[in-house]
Amino acid sequence: MIELGTRLALNTPGFLAENEIRFLGILAACTPAKGVMVEIGSFKGKSTVMLATMAKKYGLGPVVAIDPHEGFSYLGPGAPQQSPTFDEFLSSIQSAGIESQVEVRRAHSREVAQNWDRPIRLLWIDGDHSYKGCKEDFDLFSPHLAGGGHHRFP
């Protein structure tokens, strides 16, 4: 199943390298905790495709994909221009046939965290890449990690 997820993810636009995609698939498949997988920062769906492929195969429940899909605006006014990515994201998860496994939250993570009340089996933080942004995401969502859950942020 890692091979299928890898192939689908490699055909999806984004920045993860093949070894990172495989690592993410192994984490998704092998994390023993109960709960949902939460992805903060979906961009065009590369990591979402791998997570949801594993979720579909092993009955792991939904992948909650959190992203405002505003391009690179979180980088500040000097960031390269990037159009909203929502349509490309939807196209990616539909092309991979995993849209039923993805719970889309088109919002900033801090907004979603305000009402979060579910256990998290895997927390993938790949949204705002600044130290402040990563720390905020971790601080907001890590209290919900289930026993045996995993988290990673670049």
Describe the fold and architecture:
- The chain has about 150 residues and is α/β, with parallel strands linked by helices.
- The protein has one domain: 3-Layer(aba) Sandwich (Rossmann fold), CATH 3.40.50.150.
- About 40% of the residues lie in helices and about 20% in strands.
- The protein contains six helices and five strands, in the order H-H-E-H-E-H-E-H-E-H-E.
- Strands 3-2-1-4-5 form a five-stranded parallel beta sheet, sandwiched between helices.
- Helix 6 links the parallel strand 4 and strand 5.
- The longest helix is centred in the first third of the chain and has 13 residues.
- The chain is globular, with a radius of gyration of 14 Å.
- The two termini are about 25 Å apart.
